[in-house]
């Protein structure tokens, strides 16, 4: 029983990571109706930037904030410089560009910061284990951060007119222009926000898995699974999905398939959701393509 | 003059649809564009609000707006209810209202919401409902309300009666009359139902394959038996 | 376009000069394909063999993604399955290489069909997502302990190239490397012929119609579901055969030869070579094999950056790939160069 609780707690902790990457994916989806395959690589790069700030002597939370800002600018620039020119191209082109970015950013990160695995600090150290040893301070803290980001994102999208305008621009760009929304700016903002959220995920995951240029590849997969499970157009759903995937992954790894096959859990969830309930558990819109 | 258009040309890619139109809308007045299917009425509205590339002179309250981006024209006070309505189907009525007033920073947004509720009481009842689930008439009302919430100087309406039952059409034109009387917004109206349009309008232009073939005060055109027979078909 | 003009009846009716010209082209092509046997020493011949194999893999991808518009980022998985089927049968069951080929093709065809089924319900982006996930998960699946008895786990499996048969060695001096090149060439040629026949006929037009105008295609009575799943099956089969050939040519399979980067390079090869182009697949294979080396020579530290930049530049500047460029240059040079 204790072992089960431990797995559950570990699942919730890793689930928090998946949830925040899933949130970044959903952000891009909200803003552009696309899924960015380079999301993980962008987050890894952000995390290395954070490490650079920290090593330069900045206090953790200053580095955290600076990384958020840098990542936001990076995301917006990617949209402006790389995505804008192919805005109206077929979907194959978009996927190709995402793949190209994945290669470029991933490799650039390794080139600049090196391929060796690095230790990344946690802001929540020193608290010791909580809840009778079920969760470490960092795990608890990162779950808290994820939920905090979720609440902010949720409020942003539903309560602020900027968030509403971003959704409107994604749903119906023509009508959005008619009410005076600058659709191009919204797209860039969406990319910026997604990159910033991704950087939070990176900074929360790095203390657990250690920082290296390929850190995010597996995590991206779980995040896809979480986003799809929760509904790709639904930020709270994606976060719930991320947590659920984390728990499923840990329980399946412990009791069913063994740790070596954990990635295929993500694969099975992805395929399962898409075949059985493509709108996800909490999604609204059903896509109807042939 | 609120809107003055001269020598307006526009088209899609290499094909030209409008071959030099001159028309105008007065401050607080209603101008209607009539014409057969494919005459270029929709294209004219699109050209005015920058949705298609246009040449010629379009000026709003004396300021040239030709060639500006759609969102900038909207920000200068042109609200367009396009064919197909242009509401945000996935969002709620409330959110559509908020988007209508997106560019406004003044304190009267809430008062305008209330005014819309008064003009379109059914929208208030549907406040939290997804726009896509509204009836056709309610969607048309939402589209008009959304456009008015911009507090436009000029309202472009593309066939507000399209696809609606006669009773609902009566409703909508009743509301348009009220809007005309109470808000002082200028209206450029495209309509298949020439009778209704001419009743509401004070100026009318007749469009045929991208050219204006006749224009005059709406009342005169309405009286003119010959024009009605040969152009309007009723 | 030329696919429609080149129907057999037209070719038969064409003046004799064009037939002659065609034979000249064919002879030139054959000579170019065979010349490396004498011109290249063994390492470069091996590389060329791999290029032929990669062209075949790209061709497979091109059928489903290029011609049918179903975006697959996971074709490396079929390549891996083909390679492993051949390796397991040869290393564990002592089959001859040739006997494993149809088997590998059949297994991949079936897996492709199975992947194609859920793919039916997924629009472009979602299929890309699923296949991307598949590509990422493949090495882990191959390493799994439950399969270790067959797959050799992390260590992988060793096997031998097919030996040149006695009747051939009795007549000409031929090394196993040269022979492997010939085998790859012949198998690839057969698959290209198959694909060419498929694409230029009714099926090819149906594939492209479902890609470009799905609703219209359905309204015209095309069975889109059947078309799409079959396209997936054929595509997986061809890429799987390429995998089988590669297992023999390399004489070794291991999970880490089939990371998601393999799937990505097939995708990149297809884009750079030319989407929905048979000729493009040939260029694509050459690209997959040789450009990583070139990229590495430009920047040893960050070849992936070069690779990614090439991909994006092609998407921006030459979306129809090298094949499109060649076609346009030929058209400008000689009017209708058929
Ligand atoms: N998006 C478009 N692309 C190309 N051509 C178009 C487009 N929209 C309209 N056209 C063409 O422009 C011409 C004028 O069309 P328009 O929609 O302006 O006519 P209309 O007067 O509004 O007709 P209706 O009464 O049927 O709405 C038509 O010949 C039409 O085929
Ligand atoms: Mg029209």
UniProtKB/TrEMBL annotation, chain A:
Localization per record: Cell membrane
Keyword presence, Cell membrane: yes
GO cellular component, one term: plasma membrane
InterPro entries named in the record: ABC_transp_permease, BCAA_transport_permease
GO biological process, one term: amino acid transport
Pfam families noted in UniProt: BPD_transp_2
Keywords from the UniProt entry: Amino-acid transport, Cell membrane, Membrane, Transmembrane, Transmembrane helix, Transport
Domain of life assignment: Bacteria
Family designation: Belongs to the binding-protein-dependent transport system permease family. LivHM subfamily.
Protein name as catalogued: Branched-chain amino acid transport system permease protein
UniProtKB/TrEMBL annotation, chain B:
GO biological process: L-amino acid transport
Residues annotated as domain ABC transporter: 3-234
Alphabetized UniProt keyword annotations: Amino-acid transport, ATP-binding, Nucleotide-binding, Transport
GO molecular function, one term: branched-chain amino acid transmembrane transporter activity
InterPro entries according to UniProt: AAA+_ATPase, ABC_transporter-like_ATP-bd, ABC_transporter-like_CS, BCAA_Transport_ATP-bd_LivF, P-loop_NTPase
PROSITE patterns with a match to the protein in the record: ABC_TRANSPORTER_1 (PS00211), ABC_TRANSPORTER_2 (PS50893)
SUPFAM superfamilies cross-referenced by the UniProt entry: P-loop containing nucleoside triphosphate hydrolases
Gene3D superfamilies: P-loop containing nucleotide triphosphate hydrolases
Alphabetized SMART domains for the sequence: AAA (SM00382)
Keyword Transport: yes
Domain of life: Bacteria
Pfam families named among the record's database cross-references: ABC_tran
PANTHER family from the UniProt entry: HIGH-AFFINITY BRANCHED-CHAIN AMINO ACID TRANSPORT ATP-BINDING PROTEIN LIVF
Listed name of the protein: Branched-chain amino acid transport system ATP-binding protein
Source organism of the structure: Roseococcus suduntuyensis
The organism's taxonomic lineage, starting at the top: Bacteria, Pseudomonadati, Pseudomonadota, Alphaproteobacteria, Acetobacterales
UniProtKB/TrEMBL annotation, chain C:
Cell location: Cell membrane
CDD domains the record matches: TM_PBP1_LivM_like
Pfam families: BPD_transp_2
Signal peptide (residue range): none
Transmembrane segments: 23-39, 45-64, 71-91, 97-117, 124-142, 179-199, 231-254, 260-292, 304-326
Entry GO terms, CC: plasma membrane
Alphabetic keyword roster: Cell membrane, Membrane, Transmembrane, Transmembrane helix
InterPro entries in the record: ABC_transp_permease, LivM-like
Membrane topology per record: Multi-pass membrane protein
Domain of life of the native organism: Bacteria
MF terms (GO), sorted A to Z: branched-chain amino acid transmembrane transporter activity
Family annotation (PANTHER family): HIGH-AFFINITY BRANCHED-CHAIN AMINO ACID TRANSPORT SYSTEM PERMEASE (PTHR30482), HIGH-AFFINITY BRANCHED-CHAIN AMINO ACID TRANSPORT SYSTEM PERMEASE PROTEIN LIVM (PTHR30482:SF20)
Protein name: Branched-chain amino acid transport system permease protein
